[in-house]
Amino acid sequence: MREPDDAASGQVQSPDDQAAAPDRDEAGREDADYGAYSLVLVASRLPVDRTESSAGEASWRPSPGGLVTALEPVMRSSGGVWIGWSGDAGPAPGPFKAGGLHLVGIGLSPEEIRDYYEGFCNATLWPLYHDVIAPPRFHRRWWDSYVAVNRYFAEEADRQAGPGATVWVHDYQLQLVPQMLRERRGDVRIGYFTHIPFPGYEIFAQLPWRRRIVEGLLGADLLGFQRRSDAANFLRACRRAAGLMTRGATVRVLASGPGEGGYSLRVPASRAERGDRGERTGLPAGMREIRAAAFPISVDSAELGEIVQRAEVRARAKEIRQVLGQPDLVLLGVDRLDYTKGILHRLRAYGELLSEGRLGSRVVLVQVASPTRERVEAYRALRDEVELTVSRINGLYGELGYPPIHYLHQSYPREEMAALYLAADVMLVTPLRDGMNLVAKEYVACRDDEAGALVLSEFAGAADELGGAFLVNPHDIEGLKDAIVRAATITPQEARRRMRAMRRRVRDHDVAHWAASFRDMLARDTSARDPLAGDPLAGDPLAGDPLAGDPLAGDPLAGDLLAGDPLAGDPLADEVLAGDSPARGSLAGDPQNPWPGGGSGLSRGHLGSRSPSSQNGGERHGLHGQAPQQVPDGPRQGQAGRGPGDRRSLPRGRGPGRADRRRDPPGR
Ligand code: GDG
């Protein structure tokens, strides 16, 4: 069986290798043809996108995005093979290597891209799982395609997995793969991790195929979620949609899998068969136990720390502030241009703050909105709305040579992102719903000067861990405005205290920790023990009443859902939360603290004091849809301004800042 070193040894190509060709052995076979990996990762997308030159030659480029950002370092260090779709229509690319990773490309036809990817994944599951921010669409043809494509992935995983291998399936696009693979392979350990939220049952129940989804997931041994509440929602769906009984964080099913009518119609005949007697051997024959728990994903904080140490990145951060006109305050947003990210709410709040003069006249917002899913209608509509809003704000509040928003509908290299994080005083992460949000953690990981402030939506998973952030409800525009002003006016001491606590959290719980804790838990053989033994509360694991109320409510065992609760007993978390006191800085509009020269807002002295000990000579450093109709209060006046994405705003083509114009770079 392949071991990690096989994958890494001598094959590593630089991540900068933008056009890696498949490696072949002497016999002309591609190395990864051999299969028999001990670790198989299955994700909807590969970590690279296929591009074609004008001569028709294919090459591969790294594809950024939340899932790839998190998993690439894991796969690079542990070896194994990554199965995924290459991002365009055509036959399966098959096995190849790129960027030091063993990859196997799944092929999708144009119809499958339309029905599976753009349809069921992006227009049904994505909006549904993000609390129906946009209306989900249900089409039977899309579902059929979802089933078919999930089968391709399961078959390929079967081919690549060696005996007793670990197969780690990722995200909502592949929820049927665990059971499909289980039916083929009894020997493998199957883990599944969902990167996005798992919705409450009232929302999940809208899905016509809800039971099939639950049963598909239950093919796994371990189901990982971002937040404790996601795991609880899933367990509730097991009870309500599949009629199963859950116990704490576990659920038991017949090992033979669901029959015609699903699990709930296969109620075992005897107590022994049900396994509620606490047999010493643990699980009764013919049953499997599945665990659902929270594993909050994270970033490679050491790597980001190394990137921001580079002289050229620090110089670039300085340069960015210069290019922006040395403003007193730099706000930053970095998001895929997705309606879940709350970009319009953020723009609304910023526009009103400008109109009220509460941020001073020397403030800029840099908004990186990476292109994504451009063929899906809701995304096109969002882009129009965002660009109209940016244009209006720039038109209303800009001056010659000063657009208050620098809007960048492009993708950038990681070094440029790090420089932006370093140059930003306040990072705005305001999703309406987000599984985790890695941008928030990246910002923290990059701020080795312990300066900067984070405004973070309470609807992002990261809010559970980053107590040093200014937590906001992005729907509450007034609250959002207040939080932005507070974040912009905290003392350097408070900024440091908050940032230090958040940095410790992200450093100690980085992506390697996340992957290791998931894989450790997956490797544990839960069948060796019987969690129900002798427990008077233990009920029938199979005969759950699908209509019964939520048994988790008030269940003391529900706390078991979070594997190693990151905040439990963390004194820092309390300290940080307790320190979330009102800002002490002076606010704009304060008659005692007018901005000299007519610009209302923050005092120059105050802003200048934010990071006097910065490693950049005292200069402040740092650097970063909601259905449009849900944003309250559109701009009141419509004066056309400079067009969106003003290309003079940030010079490109120098240093690490060159934009990458791929169509759908963030791999989702
Ligand atoms: C999903 C879940 C969860 C963005 N633009 C560029 C770029 N990015 C990178 C960011 C960050 C990643 O993409 C985005 O991650 P998020 O977590 O914010 O969001 P999703 O893509 O929606 O990811 C999310 C995540 O999965 C992981 O589980 O956190 O909740 O929705 O790393 O930096 N990277 C580069 N250039 C860009 O222009 N290099």
**CA gyration radius, whole angstroms:** 25 Å
Strand content: 15-25%
Cα distance, first to last residue?
Answer: 31 Å
Outline: globular
The main sheet orders its strands as 5-6-4-1-7-8-9-12-11-10
How many helical stretches?
20
Bound molecules: GDP-alpha-D-glucose
Overall number of strands: 18
- Write down the oligomeric state: single chain
Largest sheet: 10 strands, mixed
Q: Could you name the ranges where pLDDT drops below 50 across 5 or more consecutive residues?
A: 3-22, 24-29, 265-269, 277-281, 527-658, 661-667
Mean pLDDT: 77
Structural class: alpha/beta
Classify the helix fraction into a percent range: 25-40%
List descriptors:
16% strand, ten-stranded mixed sheet, disordered C terminus, 668 residues, binds GDP-alpha-D-glucose, six-stranded parallel sheet, 20 helices
Protein model, in words:
With 668 residues, the protein is an alpha/beta fold. 34% of the residues lie in helices and 16% in strands. The chain has a 10-stranded mixed beta sheet with strand order 5-6-4-1-7-8-9-12-11-10, with helices on both faces. Helix 7 packs across helix 8, helix 12 runs parallel beside helix 13 and helix 12 crosses helix 16. The structure holds GDP-alpha-D-glucose. The site of GDP-alpha-D-glucose has 27 residues, from helix 2, strand 13, strand 14, helix 14 and helix 15.
